[in-house]
Automatic annotation (TrEMBL):
One Pfam family it belongs to: LMWPc
Keyword rRNA-binding: no
UniProt xrefs under InterPro entries: Ptyr_pPase, Ptyr_pPase_sf
Domain Phosphotyrosine protein phosphatase I: 2-129
GO BP field: response to arsenic-containing substance
Protein name per its UniProtKB record: Protein tyrosine phosphatase
UniProt keyword terms in alphabetical order: Arsenical resistance
Residues forming coiled coils: none
Amino acid sequence: MENILFVCVENAGRSQMAEAFFRKYAPAKFNVISAGVTPSSQLNPIVVQVMKEVGIDMTQQSPKSLSNEMIETSSKTINMGCMDKESCPALFVKDVLDWNISDPKEKSIDDVRKIRDQILKEVLQLIESLEK
C-alpha cells in the first residue's frame, strides 16, 4: 500500500477535501490521510456543506495534527498551499508537491465551491499520474 498525505495549515478545509476526493476516486492500493501543522478544532462548515453537494459526507472527519510518522511513511505528500511562510507545511516536508490552492476560510460559499472543484481536478490528475 502506498500512503498519500495531504497537508495544509489547519486541516479544516483544503486537505480534508483532497483526502475525501482521493478516498472516493483512487484505487484501493492507496491509503490516504490529511493533516495540518496547527489543526483547527473542527472542519470548516462551508467545506462540509459544499462536499455534501457532490455526495461526500465529511461529518465524521476531524482535523489531525501532522506527525513525523505521517511524513516518513508517505510515498507522496501534497501541500495544499500556505497562508504564511511561518506555518507553511512545505517547511516541514521535503519532496513535496505544492498545489498552492486558496484557503476556503472566511470565503463565500461560491468561492468554496470553486476551490472544491479545483481540488477535485488536481486529485483526479494526481491519481492518473500515480497509476502510470
